[in-house]
Amino acid sequence: xxxxxxxxxxxxxxxxxxxxxxxxxxxxxxxxxxxxxxxxxxxxxxxxxxxxxxxxxxxxxxxxxxxxxxxxxxxxxxxxxxxxxxxxxxxxxxxxxxxxxxxxxxxxxxxxxxxxxxxxxxxxxxxxxxxxxxxxxxxxxxxxxxxxxxxxxxxxxxxxxxxxxxxxxxxxxxxxxxxxxxxxxxxxxxxxxxxxxxxxxxxxxxxxxxxxxxxxxxxxxxxxxxxxxxxxxxxxxxxxxxxxxxxxxxxxxxxxxxxxxxxxxxxxxxxxxxxxxxxxxxxxxxxxxxxxxxxxxxxxxxxxxxxxxxxxxxxxxxxxxxxxxxxxxxxxxxxxxxxxxxxxxxxxxxxxxxxxxxxxxxxxxxxxxxxxxxxxxxxxxxxxxxxxxxxxxxxxxxxxxxxxxxxxxxxxxxxxxxxxxxxxxxxxxxxxxxxxxxxxxx
Length: 442
Known about the structure:
The protein is mostly helical. The protein is built from 16 helices and seven strands.
């Protein structure tokens, strides 16, 4: 439901977050293209392609691994959420060797506190065309389309084929012109510092290839992952997984091949995945991930729950792969099996949903105590149905500065979460804790 609250474009009749209205209907008109649709990022009204594509990959991966455990209606909702994004991503790569990486001027947008339905800020379109590189955004977009092609394979084979065919073409663009999109002077001021590529583009090339291998079964992608692992730094940064750094997720994804097919030339990926899991085990000699006193995985830098949720997802996926191959992993003196990994994941989810020192669920709308003042424009401002007159750029400040609860409940939003001391103040202005980031939530 959170993703329905983030929708840009023309809303359908079955829209469940009913305080939202149509918005961004002119997106793309500046470049004579239809770029309507997709999702707004977090609490603002910009469409950033890099994190949106990652969100899509994660939603699709959750359906691929766990869709058969979802009730049919919820599986359908999950596919609808994926398709809202893939329909938009297909538009961003409609022209070969060109990718639209962002819609909306973030500086203008961040200077206003207004509803998406009232947007009067510049809807600048940021594009990268060959031979300029965008390996990171194009690589992640290829991953998103390839993973989504698997999610739609049984329910919509025609759409699935389109996604896979497009993913193949977009990956070629990513691989042929190698480099980070945010190094491009023409768009740099629009994408940085918001979604600059801080960790390099190499991981997205391997990640895109790994998803194309899984979706297509192509030997060429298998060769790519084997032959480029060293040169593209597969051994680096193994302990991160988020919109900018795919290493830990890549290692888990590729491990499936090693566990199922004994592909020993991919063994280094599995060794890295094992090592990542061991860093999470408090009793293991290589444990070094920080936990709050209440037991939440913690990484400094704000919006912490996006780290906790992605890492938790990897715990569950790895547990599944280990179980399917009757394996366990060896963390020095401790042997860890699928059950322990699942128990660790469950502790994280339980913490997020209310079993924590505050007794608060960090998912809005879940349980009877959850954040009331999230850093989110549409949620904090009166809806267009209750207040039809436009609320201009600075006119929303009175709502931003108010200590009252938000007027609209953005069900399903997971906020940045508490600090390393488990403290959460429920303060709209403290965006590191109170802004919902959708990149990594399934």
